Structure formats: structure tokens, C-alpha cells
Amino acid sequence: MSKTKPAPLPPDTLIGGYRIVRLLAAGGFGLVYLALDAQGREVAIKEYLPAALATRAPGELLPQVAPEKQALYRLGLRSFFEEGRALAQIAHPAVVGVLNFFRENDTVYMVMDYLQGASLQDFIVTARGRQRKKILREATIRSLFDEVLRGLRIVHQHKMLHLDIKPANIFITDDNRAVLIDFGAAREVLNTEGTFVRPMYTPGFAAPEMYRRTGGAGLGPWTDIYAIGACIYSCMQGYPPHDAPQRQEKDRLVTALARLRGLYSNELIDVVEWCMALDPLSRPQSVFALQRELAREAAAEPEPTPSGWWERLRARLGLAQAQAPDAASHQSQRSSFLEPP
Ligand SMILES: Nc1ncnc2c1ncn2[C@@H]1O[C@H](COP(=O)(O)OP(=O)(O)O)[C@@H](O)[C@H]1O
Ligand SMILES: [Mg+2]
């Protein structure tokens, strides 16, 4: 395992006709850049470069992969490419748009719509800091997951699973869309000793079947639905739930949810419990089933969904100021951000 992270491509590097502006984020599996296309339009480009398998010296274009890691590197690369191909077929406001994907520099690049905003995780962390009783309001949670589920349903219709749904991978754009990012197909094959292995699951959001080393068997829409339940839980509680192995040992979910009763409707709390059933068969089996249940309850819900709820939430959380400096500079160019709803 290499100790140093692969160096990002420097600003002004040209790849596939796109010009790199700067690095946006560096994760374990790749690097995300802001770039400009030939028309000068901003795009986000994700470069496949798993830190565990490849290195790159500063100023170099090509990753270095040790001979014994070549096979795995190639496997991940193909999978990343397939992820791009599959995502490119989906056009939905709640799923990050893939504009292009191509091979270059011995790796693969996925060109996406450039999203400006903050992750749901940022919102939760900010809200947590306020130390109020409620992290997010129920109407906000319902509107948010209504959008996310519409996107997820399309993803499942395309025979894909996300497998890493968590607040950090739900992006809230400045124009008030909830967008699923970071589709983890590439992760499916990485970090293995030659065999098919589970993704780098995020504790708290990964369903119990994700921990079983049985290839893809047992995974299905219900696996993403478990993660959705855990995300809703986090929006109410401010923290992720205990991870699945802990729950299998001693399950405190019902106790934790009981503390939320009174603050949130019993219906929403029951939906979380349903989604997070340890037994996959006891969960909603499809996004449609879950949507139907949430819609049924929403009809009974006395509190109407406010319009402009994200603006109000942002304003209340002071997220305009709390943004990372680079994100804030984009926002300052946008007039919509804190306009009164
Ligand atoms: N399309 C995009 N537009 C803007 N920023 C993005 C986009 N995709 C990813 N990012 C940024 O890069 C970070 C990492 O991307 P992600 O796809 O989640 O990969 P990973 O978590 O595997 O490193 C995100 O949290 C987000 O900040
Ligand atoms: Mg991510």
C-alpha cells in the first residue's frame, strides 16, 4: 500500500479537451476536479486513481502501478468506466449528470455536471452545532427524500445499485435540488485479494448484507433502502445509527428512535424502522413501496411542506458563511442563494 497520495493534475492541464481549473476533492478512489469544457462551461471531472493501487508523482500525468497491483487496477478501471457508461444513460435532476467519460493517461475520466452547494452531511453538521432539539424539520426531511427517492428509483430501473448512500453523497445544490453523487460500482472490485469484495462501506449506512463476503448475492434495492433509512435517521438524530454488526449484537435502534417520538411523527419514525430492518426481506422491497408509504403519510401530515424550504434552512443555518472558502466564492456570484423565498 502506498503511503503518499497520488498527486493531482496541476491547473491548466488539458485532458480530453477539458482544462483543469483546480482540485475539488481527493478521496480514496479518485480525484475530483473543477474543469472547463471547450465552450468555457464549468464541469466536474472525476479521475480514477485509487490511492491503494496507484501513485503519481507531482507534475506527472501517468499513474504508476506496481506489477502485482496491475490486475486489480485494471479491474477497477473497467468497473469505473462501466459506472460512467451506466450513469450517462440516466438523466434525472436527482442523479448527478454524466456528460462524458473517456480513457486517457492510463486511467479513466468521468465528466459530470458541476454542482454547486453543500452536502447533506454539511447541513447536518451545521444543524447539529445549533444544539436545538430538532436537527432538520420533518417537512424538510420529507421533501428532501421525496426527491432522492425519485432519483434512486430511476437508478434501480437501470439495474444499478448505489451501495454508498450517505449524507456525504447527497448533494444539496444552490438551486435547491437534492442530487445523488458517487455511484460506487468501482468500489465493488477494489480492496480485494483477487476476489470480489464488498465496497468500502460506511459504518451506520451499510446494510448487514453488505458485510457478507458472498459476491453480489443478497444485495438489491433493499440494500440502498437500508441506507436511506439510516440517512433519514441522521437527519433527525444528527448522528448516524450504530453499524449493522453492532445492531446484530445488541440492537438499540428502537430505543434511539423512541427518543425522537414527539419531535417527529410516528409515521416517519416507523418508516425508518421499516427501512432499517436487519432482515432484508422485512424492508420495503422497492423504492416504489417506500414512496407509496411516505406519500400516504404525507397526505395525513398536518404540517404542509413549505415552499423555499432550502433557502430558509440555509438562512437559518448560516450556511452561506459556513461554506468552505472556494464554495463560498461561487455562491457570492449567485444571487439566488439567500434571496427571500
Ligand atoms: N459533480 C460534482 N460537482 C461538484 N463537486 C463534486 C461533484 N462530484 C463530486 N464532487 C465533490 O467531490 C467529493 C468527492 O466525490 P465523490 O464522488 O463523493 O467521491 P469519493 O467520496 O469516492 O471520493 C464530493 O464530496 C464533492 O465535494
Ligand atoms: Mg463520496
UniProtKB/TrEMBL annotation:
The Protein kinase domain, residue ranges: 18-295
Superkingdom field: Bacteria
Keywords: ATP-binding, Kinase, Nucleotide-binding, Transferase
InterPro entries with a match to the protein in the record: Kinase-like_dom_sf, NEK_Ser/Thr_kinase, Prot_kinase_dom, Ser/Thr_kinase_AS
Pfam families: Pkinase (PF00069)
PROSITE patterns, per database record: PROTEIN_KINASE_DOM, PROTEIN_KINASE_ST
Biased composition (Polar residues): 329-341
Molecular function as annotated in GO: ATP binding; protein serine/threonine kinase activity
CDD domains for this protein: STKc_PknB_like
Name of the protein this chain belongs to: non-specific serine/threonine protein kinase
Organism of this sequence: Tepidimonas thermarum
Lineage, broadest ranks: Bacteria, Pseudomonadati, Pseudomonadota, Betaproteobacteria, Burkholderiales
